[in-house]
Specification:
By secondary structure, this protein is α/β, with parallel strands linked by helices. The chain has eight helices and ten strands. The chain has helices at 44-56, 73-84, 99-107, 120-135, 146-163, 179-191, 236-250, 256-271, and strands at 15-17, 27-33, 65-69, 88-94, 111-115, 138-139, 170-174, 196-202, 230-234, 275-281. The longest helix has 18 residues, at 146-163. The protein is globular. It starts with 14 loop residues before the first strand and ends in an 18-residue tail after the last strand.
């Protein structure tokens, strides 16, 4: 198959049925394999839609200095797509981000600035805000940009609806910027308002890269609580153990946020008598190899 651009490979990711996690034969658990996107994560979709839409509206051009705070995957996607469109971009992330993520962004041509790990992604967001305010930078602002969730409304939601033959009953997603769950929820609820939308967020003091329980002041502006039927908290230990189990038992090599998403989906699977559950596998596990996530594997 010939594709004219790497951008043509964004989206249309496969659904894969779990082989081992669910014992109830009347419940199907399906993984939406977003690591199959060319940038390696679900974030390719909003990054492409945010940049393409801003270019079409002539809000940015090749003279624009873009800046964005990111916990990693959005930064990689933005770096890849900005490079394709010959745009200058600076990405800001906590200094404890994995080496693989930082080097991947730099490989795509982005400038990467690391902020104090002690203040987390909130500190990265504050740094980027100051550059916008004082130095003329432009922020796509994934936390407030409607082109973030609309990417999933236009692509992820319809793919899930069609690939489950309209039989999906529950959708589960980890919540970070909340773009995925906002966009997919909006689409699926239009198709069938009885579909349950479940968000996963960390328990207090748990650190799960890519998902957050945001303080009120930092809550993403695109988040609409009415579009999520239920929020389930997942511990760091549960997310870690599920990431290992996914790799070992299912052949699904992913990061900890995917472990959180599937842990939550499994809790739903154990509650219901029948249904079709779709859980987002956000990215691939290879970008966490320098972390301690897989250190206990094989022991």
């Amino acid at each position: 198959m010939l594709n004219h651009s790497i951008l043509d490979l964004i989206g249309n990711t496969p659904l894969v049925e779990s082989r081992t996690l669910v014992t109830n034969k009347n419940v199907k658990l399906l993984f939406k394999m977003e690591g199959n996107n060319p940038g390696g994560s679900v974030k390719d979709r909003p990054a492409y839609n945010m940049i393409k839409s801003a270019l079409e509206r002539k809000e940015i051009d090749q003279n624009t200095k873009l800046i964005e705070a990111t916990s990693g995957n959005t930064g990689i996607a933005l770096a890849m797509i900005a490079g394709i469109f010959k745009l200058n971009i600076e990405l800001v992330m906590p200094e404890n981000s994995t080496k693989e993520r930082v080097q991947t962004m730099r490989a795509y041509g982005a400038k990467v600035t690391l902020t104090d790990a002690a203040v987390g992604i909130e500190g990265s967001r504050d740094y980027a805000d100051l550059k916008v305010e004082n130095e003329g930078y432009v922020m796509l602002n994934q936390f407030a940009n409607n082109d973030n969730w609309k990417a999933h409304y236009k692509t992820t939601g319809p793919e899930i609806w069609n690939d489950t033959n309209k039989k999906i009953t529950h959708f589960v997603s980890a919540m970070g910027t909340t773009g995925t769950i906002m966009g997919v929820s909006t689409y699926l609820k239009e198709m069938n308002s009885s579909i349950q939308i479940i968000g996963a967020q960390p328990t207090d003091n748990s650190k799960i890269p890519g998902i957050r329980k945001w303080p009120e002041a930092y809550l993403p502006k695109i988040f609409d609580r009415s579009k999520v039927d239920r929020i389930i908290e997942v511990s760091e230990l549960e997310a870690r153990e599920m990431s290992l189990r996914l790799a070992k038992d299912e052949g699904v090599f992913s990061g900890m946020s995917s472990g959180g998403s599937v842990t939550t989906a499994l809790k739903i699977a154990n509650e219901i008598e029948s249904g079709v559950i779709v859980a987002i596998i956000c990215d691939r596990g290879d970008r966490y190899l320098s972390s301690d996530l897989f250190e206990s594997a094989g022991s």
